[in-house]
Design brief:
ATP binding; CbbQ/NirQ/NorQ/GpvN; P-loop_NTPase; ATP hydrolysis activity; 5-stranded parallel β-sheet; Rossmann fold; 308 residues; ATPase
């Protein structure tokens, strides 16, 4: 029996492509397919790839397109359950204790019960994602999971398996409807297989020149076509160089906006040298492109773009 997609979710892969395109996100067919399956089956989607290729943006676009709240958990080393789920507002609790003591005759057992209620709970992203939200289940973005430690990965298994979190003082909070979960990783380390098994997986690669041109046209429509072609060709050529950090799509868009702000109509070695900081983020990489290297790449793309 064919499973019926949840209300409001695109009914086909083509509909997903159109939904993303309407928000300015030009997705490859494989990415549109895995997004469709994640939405249809209610499975978390694990996106892996280099920084700047559009992994985080896909969650933002889905939230906007479906009219859902976006809840973002930015991962970092040392992230623990308290920071991700909920924390007690100790300052407010202390004020309540002192107020009760000043009033006199405070019942300690009753006070302890009242201190550990929702009124004193600071909600963090994982707990918020399990709550009912206006417009339907939210989009939960667990961003840069590879930055966390393995113990936190293990904690996520409960949340992603049963869509629930446990607060010792309050008990288990289960989502009435599963959130749309998207996890991203820049692959600075391997994420454990147990977590990956609970997700649909997709590697987000650098786009082809044709698709990057479409992306740039969608995100920076004010750029002239000739300049856009040069920008895309140059960035594509840069990615073949021996660089510490190759520029992503985000850098391509940023560079185009910088060039437009400078009223550039065509690339020159001087313009490239002055704006390399928009596409390269390491000094060693920038030094490699100084002088004749930038001119060589520019000459190469001009040959490639020249009419046959």
């Amino acid at each position: 029996m064919t499973e019926i997609p949840p209300p409001g979710v695109p009914q086909s892969i083509d509909a997903v492509e159109q939904m993303l395109a309407a928000e300015g996100y030009v997705a490859a067919r494989a990415l549109s397919t895995v997004v469709f399956l994640a939405l249809r089956l209610g499975r978390p989607l694990f996106l892996e790839g280099e920084a700047g290729v559009g992994k985080t943006e896909i969650a933002k676009v889905i939230a906007r397109a479906l009219g859902r709240r976006l809840i973002r958990l930015q991962c970092y080393e040392g992230l623990d359950a308290a920071s991700a789920v909920a924390e007690w507002n100790f300052a407010a609790q202390m004020v309540a204790i002192r107020t009760a003591e000043a009033a006199g005759g405070a019942d300690r057992d009753l006070l302890k019960t009242e201190l550990f209620t929702e009124d004193f709970l600071i909600e963090r992203p994982l707990l918020a994602a399990m709550r009912p939200q206006p417009g339907g289940p939210p989009v939960l973005l667990i961003d840069e999971l590879d930055r966390t430690d393995e113990p936190f990965e293990a904690y996520l298994l409960e949340a992603l398996s049963d869509f629930q979190v446990t607060i010792p003082e309050l008990g288990t909070v289960r989502a009435p409807s599963p959130p749309i979960v998207i996890l991203t990783s820049n692959r600075t380390r391997e994420v454990h297989d147990a977590l990956k098994r609970r997700c649909l997986y997709h590697w987000v690669d650098y786009p082809t020149a044709e698709r990057e041109q479409q992306i740039l046209t969608a995100r920076c429509p004010e750029a002239q076509e000739a300049l856009s072609r040069e920008i895309v060709a140059f960035v594509q050529k840069l990615r073949t160089e021996d660089l510490f950090k190759k520029p992503g799509v985000a850098e391509t868009i940023d560079w185009a906006k910088c060039l437009l702000a400078l009223d550039v109509i065509s690339l020159t070695p001087e313009v490239i040298a002055d704006t390399l900081g928009a596409i390269l983020k390491y000094q060693d990489d920038i030094q490699k492109l100084q002088g004749s290297a930038a001119k060589r790449l520019l000459d190469d793309i001009r040959k490639d773009l020249a009419p046959a």
